[in-house]
Design a protein that fits this description.
Shape: globular
Distance between the termini: 48 Å
Helix content: over 70%
Radius of gyration: 18 Å
Largest sheet: none
Order of helices and strands: HHHHHHHHHH
Strand content: under 5%
Length: 228
């Protein structure tokens, strides 16, 4: 029974992480588009966000390989299991895919709000990694431990560009209510959505990898344009 519980827990954990890592780097494509238009192609912020994007892609590939070694695909999840998805929806009133990039470019209050959302999300992720590395089920899987240690090492550089932009442009730090929203999203996933998913016998697995369209550059470019 304990072994089944362990396997189920790690399967769900890996599925949630691979979804969020893929969602993270594809969402950052939109952020990069906004920053290039707002700040110019030579702004130092772009290089830092590009590294953030590359790290998210690297993390996704590590989880993908973890599932491939087991001979299976992750469990099929939608955006209700994405931290950044929920945060954007609450703070902007729309999904990531429908976020008005042009409005974010043109309005300071929207751009700084986006920076705070990303920063809080990344800091939340770092705290969660610390917790998971102490989890006995995670510790029982050496490959997963290695993945989380890589993420732990990379994470601080992910919120730094957004905090730096806010500081350099004399913008405020997140207020208590923004931190409360962040905490609510995390608690909602941990104490409501994850237990329901754990006990649901009808969950299905993805039949293709999330990045399959990216193997076709023309198809991926079309998808990016349609999201703008």
């Amino acid at each position: 029974m304990i072994e089944w519980f362990r396997r189920r827990y790690l399967d769900l954990l890996g599925s949630i992480y691979i979804y969020n890592e893929h969602r993270g780097y594809t969402a950052l494509d939109r952020v990069l588009e906004a920053v290039r238009a707002r700040c110019g192609p030579d702004d130092p912020l772009i290089v830092k966000i590009e590294k953030h994007r590359a790290d998210e892609r690297k993390h996704y590939l590590m989880f993908k390989r973890w599932f491939e070694i087991q001979g299976k695909h992750p469990i099929h999840l939608d955006r209700t299991f994405g931290h950044i998805d929920r945060f954007i929806e609450i703070m902007f009133g729309t999904s990531i895919d429908k976020l008005d990039t042009q409005a974010v470019i043109e309005r300071d209050e929207l751009f700084e709000r986006l920076c705070r959302v990303i920063s809080l999300t990344e800091k939340r992720g770092y705290k969660q990694i610390e917790t998971l590395l102490a989890n006995r089920f995670v510790q029982s899987d050496p490959a997963l431990v290695k993945i989380f240690k890589v993420i732990e090492r990379d994470e601080p550089s992910h919120w730094a560009p957004y905090d730096g932009w806010l500081r350099d442009n004399a913008k405020r730090e997140p207020k208590w209510w923004e931190r409360t929203v962040d905490g609510f999203i995390h608690s909602e996933l941990l104490f409501l959505k994850l237990p329901i998913l754990f006990l649901n016998p009808f969950v299905t697995r993805k039949d293709v990898w999330a990045d399959h369209a990216e193997q076709d550059p023309d198809r991926y470019s079309d998808r990016l344009r349609s999201a703008t």
